[in-house]
Amino acid sequence: MADVKPIGKALFLREEELRRGIELMFFAYRDFTGEADSILAEQNMGRAHHRAIYFIGRNPGITVSDLLTILCITKQSLSRVLSGLMQDGYVAQKPGATDRRQRLLYLTETGIALESRLTSLQGRRFAAAYREAGVDAVDGFQRVLRGLLDSYTIDQIAQQDQASDI
C-alpha cells in the first residue's frame, strides 16, 4: 500500500480506511454501471459505447479527435465503437463547416433517446445519494473525486468547461 502516514488524528489516512475507500469506489462503480450495462446489453453494446454516446450527447458536434482525447482509447477501438453506433443509427457523422476533413459527431434521435434513458437512470442514483448525503458531503465527494484525477484530466475538464461557456 502507499506510504501514507496519518497526520495527527486523521484516521481517514490509515491503511484500513484507504482500503475501505478503494473498495467502496469499486462497489459504487459496479452498482452505478450495473443498470446501464443491462440496458446496453439489450442493444449488444458495452461501456465503451455508453461513454461515446454520453460524451457525444454532452458535446454535439464533437470531433472524432476530441472524443479520442476524452476517452483515452486507441483510434482502432473508437473506430469499432463508432462504426457500430453509426450502423445501428445512434450516431451521425457530418463534415466540418470550415474544414471538410473534420468528422463531427452527433446523436440521432435514437441515440438521444438511449443517452437520455441511461443518464436519467444514473442521474436518479446520484440524486438519491446526494439528497441523503447533504450539500457539504456532496462538495466533499466532488473534491475527493477531483483529487483522484491526473493533472492531464483536470486540464481536459477545464478546457471542456471553457468551451461550454463560449
Can you walk me through this structure?
With 166 residues, this protein is mainly α. 69% of the residues lie in helices and 7% in strands. It is built from seven helices and three strands, in the order ααβααββααα. Strands 1-3-2 form a three-stranded antiparallel β-sheet. The protein is globular, with a radius of gyration of 19 Å. The mean pLDDT is 90.
Write the layout of secondary structure elements.
Blueprint: H1 15-42, H2 47-58, E1 62-63, H3 64-71, H4 75-87, E2 91-95, E3 103-107, H5 109-133, H6 135-148, H7 151-165
Helix pairs in contact: 1-5, 2-4, 2-5
Describe the structure concisely for a colleague:
This protein is mainly α and about 170 residues long.
Task: List its salient traits.
single chain, 166 residues, mainly alpha, 3-stranded antiparallel beta sheet, 7 helices
Helix % is 55-70%
**What amount of the residues lies in strands?**
5-15%
User: How would a crystallographer describe the biggest sheet?
Assistant: 3 strands, antiparallel
Contiguous helical run count = 7
**Number of DSSP E strands:** 3
